[in-house]
Design brief:
Layout lengths: L4 H39 L7 H13 L3 E2 L5 E8 L13 E6 L6 H8 L3 E7 L2 H17 L1 H6 E8 L16
Parallel strand pairs: 3-4, 4-5
Antiparallel strand pairs: 1-2, 2-5
Helix pairs in contact: 2-4
Length: about 170
């Protein structure tokens, strides 16, 4: 049985492609383990609060309808995420900042570096962003102990937009 150069070349390419797929599978497995260990470091030694408590608090804040600012152009939902630090009796300096959904992921690094109380306004310009912001705030409250302890988060949106707690059809998005 003779093999032509073309058949040898195809077999070699198939072998290389198979080895590449094996390499990628092993690499993605290692990456997944690395990510799990990083998240474990974030949450170690901290007792999570019951998730229902966050849900009820968020529902209560959203049911209030927020308040309009002085110009009546923006609606503000205060303390959607209410850090456990006591602002009235504490001598800590509070870092005050604002963000958008596209930059919310930087908050983790800010919390790690600042290691003190943080008050943050989250601006959501449209109805889809308001809905996503509400889901993100709930997820942060339920899953991230450092956020629960150190961050007070306020949602700011246009006055004609109302935030609401995600209903059952949104359950898959959590």
């Amino acid at each position: 049985m003779q093999c032509s150069c073309f058949q040898v070349l195809v077999a070699a390419l198939a072998l290389v492609a198979g080895l590449q797929l094996l390499y990628l599978a092993l690499l993605s497995g290692l990456h997944g383990q690395d990510q799990r260990s990083r998240y474990a470091e974030l949450f170690q030694g901290r007792q999570p609060l019951p998730r229902d408590r966050h849900k009820e608090r968020l529902k209560q804040v959203l049911a209030s309808g927020g308040s309009l600012d002085a110009s009546r152009r923006y609606r503000i939902y205060q303390d959607m995420l209410h850090g456990t630090w006591d602002g009235e009796h504490s001598q800590d300096v509070v870092l005050v900042t604002h963000t958008s959904l596209s930059n919310l992921h930087h908050t983790q690094q800010l919390v790690e570096r600042w290691k003190g109380p943080l008050s943050m306004a989250l601006f959501a310009p449209g109805p889809a962003e308001v809905r996503l912001a509400t889901m993100m705030v709930y997820a942060l409250a339920a899953l991230c102990a450092p956020f629960r302890q150190l961050v007070r988060l306020h949602l700011v949106c246009h006055a004609d937009q109302m935030a609401a707690f995600p209903e059952l059809e949104d359950h898959d998005e959590f």
